[in-house]
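Input (structure):
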C-alpha cells in the first residue's frame, strides 16, 4: 500500500499549538508520526476502479452489498452482505462520532460540541485522525460520524454529538473531521440528513422546513461534508416536509445527489427504511441494519429488492448505481489495499480480539479537552490559580468525583458522577475517566491542601467544606442523550435546562459560604444559571463534555498550564423563553414540527429580536488580553460572480500570558438578501506569544458572500452594501467596515 507520512502536517500542528508551557510536545510529535496517512482517490479514479468489479456482479450480488445482515447479524452495529467471485468484503459499520462504541481498548475523547468550542481547525482535524486510526486498527470500514444536526432547541438530546448552533462552524468542523477520519483509510458518515433536531417521537415527526432554511442552515454542513469527499451520508428517522427522510426525493436525489453532487452512498439510520420501491427510487443506497425491524428476519431490500427489479418496478441500472456508490467509496479510501480484518465484536465479546488501539491519543484528548474549555467569567483575575501551600482549595459536588457506574454503564445511560459525555449510540466506553478531583490532586500533589465533598445531597456539608477553604470550586452538570435510554426521567431530550442533581442549590450554598467561588459546568448545551450574578462567584469554567481526560484538561486550565481559548458554540440565554425553539411534544397520531424561526437559529434570533443573551455565541475569555487594530478590507471584483473580498486585521497580545485568540468574522448582507443581522463567515484561531502581534487574513468568495434566493433555487451574491465585522464574539465586534458590490 502506498503510504504518505505527512511529517509537515505534524510540524505545522506543533507550531500552531495553542497552549503554553505545555509538557509533552516531543511526545506529541512522536505520537502524530505514528499515524500513516493515506492519499485518498478522487471520485473519478474510484469509480474507474469500481466499474469493472460491479460489472461482474449479478443482480443478487449487487443487492447483497446494499443490504445489511440484520441487527446483531455480524460483528458491528451494521454489516453488509459480501460477494464471492467477484469478491467484495462484508463491510463493518460502527458508531460513534466521538470514538468506537461497543469495544474496549479504545479512546473516548471530547464530544463534537467540544470540538466545535475549540474553534481550532487543526485540532479538529487531528481528532478525526486519531479516531480514524483507531477505527482502522479495529478493522472498521465505516465510522458512523460526524453528526451535524443543529442546536436549534437547546434541550435536543443528541445535539452534543454535533457542532453547535451555527452552520458555518458546523460545516468546517464536519469537513475537518471527515478529512481526518478518511486520511486513515476509514469511510466517514455524516448524519442525520435532515431535520433530526430532537429525540422525542423521532420516528414519527415531520420537520417542516422551508427551502431557504434547508439550504442555508440544515443542509449547509452536509454540503461542506460533500466538498470534503465524505464517503457516506446517513438519512434520518424523521420525515421532512411530510415524507420520510430515507425515501425523500427532494432531500436525497434533488439536493444531496444532484445539487451537492454527492457520489458516495446513502445509508439509512437503523430501521429508518420504510419501503422498497420508494426508498430506492428516491435515493437510498443501503439499508441498515438490514432487517425491517430489529430481528424481524425480513428486509425492504434483499429479496424484496431483487423481486422489484425482476417485476420491472425498479430499473436494474439503479441497483448498479447503488452498488457502484458503495464499491467506489471503498476504493476511494483504498480499503482494497490491505485493510485489517474486523477484530471487534459488538455483541459477542468472546470473539473480540481486544486489540488496544489507543496509542498516545490521550495526549490529543487532554489538549483538546483544555482547548475546548470555555472561560465564561473571570472577575478579579481569580484564574489561573497559583499553587500555594498557604491556600486551601475545596472541591465540591458529585460532578467532581467518580461514579458508581461510569465505566460499565451501558451507552453511558446514567448520571451519578462527573459528566464527560452524553448517552446513547454517540458514545464510546471510557478506558478510564480522570475525574476533576483526581486531575486537580495530581496537578498540585502535596504542594497545596485540597479538601473535598464529592456529593450534592448535603448542602450543609458542602457549605462547611467551602467555608473552611480559601477557594471553593463547585461542580454541576446537565446531561442528555438518545431516546432509547431514559435517565432520571429524561427521554433523550432534556425536560428543561436546569442543572441536574441539585446543581443550583449546591452552587448557591457554596457561593454563600466562600467569597472565592469558581463554578465548573459539565453540560451537553446551555443551562439556566440563576446564580450567575452571585458576587462571590468569581469565575465560571465550561468544560462541556471533555471525555476521558476530563480532570487533567481542567487542571491544566485552572492552574494556567493552558491558557483558555475556547468560545461558546451556542448562545446561553438569560431566560429559557428567549431561545428561538424548544422541544415539540406532538401527539400520538400526528406530529409536525414547524421550524418557524426559519433562518433565525441561535444568535441570529437574539440579534434579530434584540434580546441580550447571558453569554453570546462565540464568547470565551483568556488569561491574557488581545487588542485588534489595522483592520482592512479589499474587494476584488472580476467578471460575473467572480468576486473575492479580502480582510486583514492585526491582533496584539498585550496581556501577561501567551495565548490564542479566535478571531471571528461576521457579515451583514445588503437589505435585499433579507438575511439575519450578522452571520459567521470566517474564523481563525491564532496563537500569539505575549508582547507579540499577528496579522490574520480572511478570504471571502462566492460561498461566503451568497444567500439562497428561493426565486432562483440557487445561491446568489447580492449587490449592494455589506458590512464586514471582525470580533472576539458575536456580540464583541472590534472592527466593522462597509463595502459595496455593484
Ligand atoms: C441510531 C442512531 O440514530 C444512529 O446515529 C446510529 O449510528 C445508529 N442507531 C446505529 O447505532
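Output (sequence):
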Amino acid at each position: 500500500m502506498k503510504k504518505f507520512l505527512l511529517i509537515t502536517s505534524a510540524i505545522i500542528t506543533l507550531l500552531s499549538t495553542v497552549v503554553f508551557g505545555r509538557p509533552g510536545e516531543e511526545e506529541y510529535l512522536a505520537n502524530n508520526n505514528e499515524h500513516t496517512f493515506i492519499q485518498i482517490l478522487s471520485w473519478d479514479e474510484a469509480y474507474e476502479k469500481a466499474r469493472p468489479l460491479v460489472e461482474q456482479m449479478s443482480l443478487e450480488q449487487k443487492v447483497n452489498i446494499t443490504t445489511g445482515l440484520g441487527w446483531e447479524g455480524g460483528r458491528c452495529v451494521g454489516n453488509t452482505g459480501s460477494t464471492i467471485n467477484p469478491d467484495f468484503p462484508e463491510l463493518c459499520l460502527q458508531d460513534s462520532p466521538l470514538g468506537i462504541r461497543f469495544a474496549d481498548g479504545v479512546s473516548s475523547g471530547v464530544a463534537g460540541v467540544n470540538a466545535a468550542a475549540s474553534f481550532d481547525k487543526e485540532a479538529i482535524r487531528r481528532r478525526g485522525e486519531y479516531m480514524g486510526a483507531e477505527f482502522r486498527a479495529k478493522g472498521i470500514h465505516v465510522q458512523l460520524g460526524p453528526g451535524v444536526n443543529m442546536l436549534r432547541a437547546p434541550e435536543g438530546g443528541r445535539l452534543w454529538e454535533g457542532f453547535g448552533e451555527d452552520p458555518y462552524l458546523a460545516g468546517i468542523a464536519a469537513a475537518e473531521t471527515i478529512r481526518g477520519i478518511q486520511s486513515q483509510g476509514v469511510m466517514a458518515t455524516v448524519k442525520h440528513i435532515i431535520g433530526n433536531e430532537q429525540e422525542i417521537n423521532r420516528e414519527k415527526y415531520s420537520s417542516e422546513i422551508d427551502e431557504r432554511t434547508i439550504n442555508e442552515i440544515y443542509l449547509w454542513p452536509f454540503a461542506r461534508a460533500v466538498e470534503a469527499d465524505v464517503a457516506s451520508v446517513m438519512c434520518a428517522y424523521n420525515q421532512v416536509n411530510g415524507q420520510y427522510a430515507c425515501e425523500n426525493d427532494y432531500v436525497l436525489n434533488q439536493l444531496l445527489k444532484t445539487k451537492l453532487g454527492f457520489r458516495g452512498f446513502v445509508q439509512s439510520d437503523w430501521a429508518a427504511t420504510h419501503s422498497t420501491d420508494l426508498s430506492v427510487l428516491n435515493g437510498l443506497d443501503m439499508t441498515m441494519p438490514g432487517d425491517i425491524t430489529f430481528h424481524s428476519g425480513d428486509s425492504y431490500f434483499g429479496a424484496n429488492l431483487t423481486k422489484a427489479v425482476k417485476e420491472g418496478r425498479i430499473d436494474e441500472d439503479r441497483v448498479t448505481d447503488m452498488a457502484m456508490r458503495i464499491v467506489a467509496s471503498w476504493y476511494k479510501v483504498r480499503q482494497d489495499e490491505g485493510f485489517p480484518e474486523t477484530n471487534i465484536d459488538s455483541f459477542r465479546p468472546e470473539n473480540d480480539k481486544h486489540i488496544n488501539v489507543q496509542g498516545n491519543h490521550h495526549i490529543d484528548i487532554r489538549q483538546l479537552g483544555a482547548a475546548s474549555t470555555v472561560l465564561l467569567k473571570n472577575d478579579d483575575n481569580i484564574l489561573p490559580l497559583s499553587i500555594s501551600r498557604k491556600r486551601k482549595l475545596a472541591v465540591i459536588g458529585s460532578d467532581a468525583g467518580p461514579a458508581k457506574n461510569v465505566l460499565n454503564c451501558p451507552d453511558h445511560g446514567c448520571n451519578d458522577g462527573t459528566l464527560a459525555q452524553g448517552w446513547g449510540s454517540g458514545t464510546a466506553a471510557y478506558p478510564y475517566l480522570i475525574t476533576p478531583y483526581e486531575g486537580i490532586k495530581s496537578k498540585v500533589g502535596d504542594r497545596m491542601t485540597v479538601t473535598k465533598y464529592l456529593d450534592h445531597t448535603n448542602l450543609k456539608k458542602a457549605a462547611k467544606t467551602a467555608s473552611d477553604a480559601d477557594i471553593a470550586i463547585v461542580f454541576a452538570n446537565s446531561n442528555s442523550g438518545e431516546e432509547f435510554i431514559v435517565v432520571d426521567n429524561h427521554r433523550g431530550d432534556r425536560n428543561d435546562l436546569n442543572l441536574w442533581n441539585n446543581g443550583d442549590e449546591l452552587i448557591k450554598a457554596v457561593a454563600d459560604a466562600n467569597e472565592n467561588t469558581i463554578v465548573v459546568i459539565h453540560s451537553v448545551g446551555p443551562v439556566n444559571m440563576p446564580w450567575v450574578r452571585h458576587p462571590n462567584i468569581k469565575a465560571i469554567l465550561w468544560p462541556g463534555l471533555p471525555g476521558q481526560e476530563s480532570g487533567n484538561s481542567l487542571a491544566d486550565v485552572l492552574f494556567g498550564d493552558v491558557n483558555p481559548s475556547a468560545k461558546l458554540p451556542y448562545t446561553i440565554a438569560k431566560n429559557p423563553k428567549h431561545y428561538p425553539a424548544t422541544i415539540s411534544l406532538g401527539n400520538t397520531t400526528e406530529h409536525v414540527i414547524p421550524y418557524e424561526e426559519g433562518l433565525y437559529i441561535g444568535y441570529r434570533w437574539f440579534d434579530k429580536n434584540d434580546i441580550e443573551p447571558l453569554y453570546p455565541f462565540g464568547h470565551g475569555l483568556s488569561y491574557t488580553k488581545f487588542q485588534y487594530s489595522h483592520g482592512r478590507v479589499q474587494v476584488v471584483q472580476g467578471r460575473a460572480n467572480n468576486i473575492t473580498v479580502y480582510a486583514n486585521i492585526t491582533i496584539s497580545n498585550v496581556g501577561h500570558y501567551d495565548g490564542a485568540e479566535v478571531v471571528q468574522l461576521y457579515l451583514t448582507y445588503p437589505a435585499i438578501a433579507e438575511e439575519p443581522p450578522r452571520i459567521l463567515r470566517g474564523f481563525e484561531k491564532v496563537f500569539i506569544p505575549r508582547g507579540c502581534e499577528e496579522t490574520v487574513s480572511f478570504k471571502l468568495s462566492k460561498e461566503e458572500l451568497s444567500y439562497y434566493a428561493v426565486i432562483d433555487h440557487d445561491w446568489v451574491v447580492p449587490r449592494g452594501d455589506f458590512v464586514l465585522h471582525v470580533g472576539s464574539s458575536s456580540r464583541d465586534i472590534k472592527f466593522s467596515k462597509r463595502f459595496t458590490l455593484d
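Notes: Residues 77, 95, 144, 191, 269-270, 425 surround 1-deoxynojirimycin (CB under 6 Å). Residues 1-33 have pLDDT under 50 and may be disordered.
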